[in-house]
Design a protein that fits this description.
Layout lengths: L3 E7 L3 E8 L4 E8 L6 H13 L7 E8 L2 E3 L4 E4 L7 E3 L1 H5 L7 E5 H11 L9 E6 L3 E7 L2 E2 L31 H4 L1 H15 L2 H6 L9 H9 L3 H25 L3 E5 L7 H14 L2 H4 L3 E4 L3 H12 L2
Parallel strand pairs: 1-4, 4-8, 9-12, 12-13
Antiparallel strand pairs: 1-2, 2-3, 5-6, 6-7, 9-10, 10-11
Helix pairs in contact: 3-11, 5-8, 7-8, 8-9
Bound molecules: zinc ion (ZN).
The site of zinc ion has 6 residues, from loops.
Amino acid sequence: MNKMYLGVDLGGTEIKIAIVDQTGSIIEETGIANNGASVPKTVIAEIIRRSRAMRNFSQVVGTGVGVAGDIDQKKGIVRFSPNLGNWKKVPLRKMLAGHLPGDIVVDNDANVAALGAVWLDAQGKARNLICVTLGTGVGGGIVCQGKLYRGSSGTAGEIGHMSFDHDGPKCNCGSSGCIERYIGAPYLSRFAKGLVEVEGSKIISKLVNNNLDAITPAILSQAALMGDPLAKRIWVDAGEKLGVVLASVINFYNPDMVVLAGGVSKAGKLLLDPVKRMVKIRAFSTSSRECKIVISRYTQKLGVVGAALLAK
Ligand SMILES: [Zn+2]
């Protein structure tokens, strides 16, 4: 029998559920709309009901769940999640045990995305991989010798809070100059708004109907592809900053692969080219030569596939 695993990607607006084989191929999938304010007990009951209704459920031998938030992996508890308001100290593993197959493994979304990237983007070939999730926040997951590296208290991989400038803007984490403060979606948008106010951009202004609060990374990508010089410059600047941080990460960790995922990574080459240029200039050539830097082609699936593979 081909062993199968159940993966649940629990996000603030959507819950994805999939049954995945040993190589990360999705056999069957389903989704539930989620409201960040929903009650954990109700959401968990719905996850159980929908999972058990899947055609291949009887073949599932293990279950993994990825949650955007602070997770106690050892106990399977969601300590806190910024996107799931009511989820505080929720004993998720305990609540799912007996209802879903195997030992239930719970981890945070960036960690499971890293595991997903090993099987989807690297086709199972990368042993040492870093996955950077670029969204509202900037997260990171570390795979070391084929396994997730979680650190002593389970918080390893917080690439978003590597400081880029000791004198930089204050970050929510208490530090200052963290890379998240420059390329997290809301900060990038706000930075762009400030520049458009000073320098002007016909293309960006038109795309947002002169409402500069409506600038998003997607708008900036669109404007850059339409030839807007300011939007292009913003991406070069964002990519170079991320590249400087990644050059340090690559020197420090010497990975086979760095995978960029999440909404902001949809900028594609606009972001990737300056990242690669900076890494080439700044990282040791012996480490940067061996390291492939890519934008994930599977951003939407990394979480749910990685969650399933947690159970493997
Ligand atoms: Zn920070």
